[in-house]
Amino acid sequence: MKLQHLLLVLPLAVLVAGCGGGGGSAKLDKSDVAVVSGQHISKTQFDEVMAQQKVSLKSQGQTFPKAGTTAYTSLQSQVMNVLVQNAEFENEADKLGVKVTNKDVQSQLDQIKKQYFGGSDKRYLQEIKKEGYTDAAVRDQIRSQLLAQRLFDKVTATVTASAKEVHAYYVAHKSQYPPTRDVQEILVGKNKKSLAQTIYKKAKKGGDFAALAKKYSQDPGSKDIGGKFTAKKGQDVPEFDAAVFSKAKTGALLAPVNTKEYGWFVIKLLGPVKPTAESQVAATIRAQLDQQDRNQEMTAWVTKVTKNYCNGGKITYQVGYQPSPDPCTALATATSTTDTTTTP
Question: Are residues 45 and 334 in contact, defined by beta-carbon separation less than 8 angstroms?
């Protein structure tokens, strides 16, 4: 298991692309590539992430770009954007009381070692070395991921879809929730019309359908439960679907049905066609809407944070490390355009 599959090299990039940016008056140390409101980003950190990117690209059969090329500048800018974003989130986490302890990181790392390396420190260390990581870098990655998740949980803690929203979604997407019908079915098989007719006649004369299913059905999923099956409209082969969802009444024993894919069926209708009630799918809809709403809430929060750090000299870059293009410039342009558009 490659470590890139376990850790995101750029751990917070999933939340927003290109956070931070702009010039500022925050004081740089000689070893810094940037400083964000007192959070120092060292060249060592930057070099480690670039080294990880190099190994990652090599594993994908791609060449790491040469310094001075457009591709290298683009990669450097992406790395700087995420490192700055991490620093911003560290600051915001302090304000919100969100913490990740060394114990938290160790617990997560122990789980990774157990699941993917059989609990072996030796195998773990060999793999991370091969992939350009140090143990310290892995721990930093884990810490960033845990911090991102806990920030997400904190910011979106009160977000939940209303009953009205759930109902509106259900009404708008009713086609996703097809009607159902309880049946008993015996899959007789291909080229077995005569046997299907025999089974049908036995059932019509009062034969025990469940016993017939157990004796004759080729469907391992239903034969031992009396052939009972809940059909969903549009989910089965066309011939079976058309027969089950016909206007035939509850209790009807249908004439044998031949399907192109599976052959002959004998089917008994146990109940009426039932629409999928909103109550049956409300929990699933709510979970989906909750996730969408939480993502939107987090995006809005990140945008607010970004704007805050783009103002007031909160970010300073070492010469040669400022992202290109500068995300704050793009943000300022977008804000200016919006203001111009909305101004009477």
Answer: no
Tokens for 206, please give them: 């009062």
User: Are 316 and 28 in contact, with CB atoms under 8 Å apart?
Assistant: yes
- Is 3.10.50.40 the CATH number for 179-269? yes
Strand-pairing partners, residue 60, are none
Of 274, 287, 293, the C-alpha closest to 177 is 274
Give tens-digit pLDDT for 32-84: 999 998 889 999 989 988 988 888 888 889 999 999 999 999 999 999 998 99
Work out the angle between the directed axes of helices 278-310 and 327-342 (0-180°, nearest 10): 110
11-15: long-range contacts at Cβ-Cβ below 8 A with a sequence spacing of 24 or more?
Answer: 11/82, 11/86, 11/141, 11/144, 11/145, 11/148, 12/82, 12/85, 12/86, 12/89, 12/144, 12/148, 13/78, 13/82, 13/85, 14/148, 15/85, 15/148, 15/152, 15/298, 15/299, 15/302
Residue 84's nearest CA partner among 29, 42, 136 is 42
Instruction: Quote the tokens at residue 8.
Output: 């995101």
Order of strands, sheet of 180-189, starting from the edge strand that comes earlier in the sequence: 228-232, 180-189, 263-269, 253-259
186-225 per-position pLDDT tens digit: 999 999 999 999 999 999 999 999 999 999 999 999 999 9
Indicate the length of the chain as a whole number: 344
Q: Is 1.20.1090.10 the CATH number for 3-159+285-342?
A: no
The residue ranges of every structural domain in the chain are 3-159+285-342, 179-269
Distance from C-alpha of 49 to C-alpha of 156, rounded to nearest angstrom? 29
